Amino acid sequence: MLSSIDLIIECRDYRVPLTSRNPLFEQSLAGRERVIVYTKRDLGSHGLAVDKKRETQHGLAHDSLTGSRILIVGMPNVGKSSLLNALRMAGVNRGKAAFTGAQPGITRKIASGVKIVDPDPETGTEGVYLVDTPGVFVPFVPDTESMLKLALVGSVKDTIIAPTTLADYLLFHMNLKVGGRVYGEYCGATNDVVEFLEGVCRKTGRLGKGGVPDLEAAALWVVQRWRQGNLGRFVLDEVEVDGLERKVAEEVRMSVSQARKQAKDVQRMRAKTKKSDSMG
């Protein structure tokens, strides 16, 4: 299929620009024309100022894409289908062609090309088609914090990690990035997730029998509120040069570790095959 593709668009979540970088794409798409789009930018920075001059310069320095087939790839729930729908609306003024949702896994198979630019019979130029794909999760998650980040932004189903654990991690980042004022209507500044969630329960009426706070329901609600940009807008990754270098080095170490593991698995399989052959 890649042989028929002229350009790759890789989507990464603006809130986790490093963690949503999938090393599988670095390997499989190496050498191909690729544009990286950071999605959900409005959720990663409050009142982000747009550099109009730079945007204009970037817009002028482009190649014609007429007659192209474009493949869009990225992690689960990173916003690929939303980007496709936006490009379709901007290019041909038509509604949704791809389903979207708050949970990962909405797109389950590679779609046929969706037209985002109409062909022009007068000039003879061809149309532009965009191909949507299911989200591809990283082959391995290097550490617990990376998994928490991916779960918090919605690249992992909410059933994988306990909601209270996610809320605890979110509370840490809220205190670090924006301070306790962002959740001040629920409780005072705190590092205690139980105190925070109990305050949310009282304020929102998430109480069980006998008025017992439903901490899990409150945690789910809090995470959803943050995903919508209502509990602070900030980036979870450390987006500095050192942070990127550490991320790449980490991927190299993990790749070597995975290669060694695969080699051992192959050796074990060969040993089992030889043993079964000798017994036969």
TrEMBL record:
Database matches in InterPro entries: GTP-bd, GTP-bd_ortho_bundle_sf, P-loop_NTPase
Gene Ontology molecular functions: GTP binding; GTPase activity
Presence of the UniProt keyword Mitochondrion in the record: no
Domain of life: Eukaryota
G domain boundaries: 69-141
GO cellular component, one term: mitochondrion
Location of region: Disordered: 260-280
Name listed for the protein in its UniProt record: G domain-containing protein
Organism in which the protein naturally occurs: Monilinia laxa (Brown rot fungus)
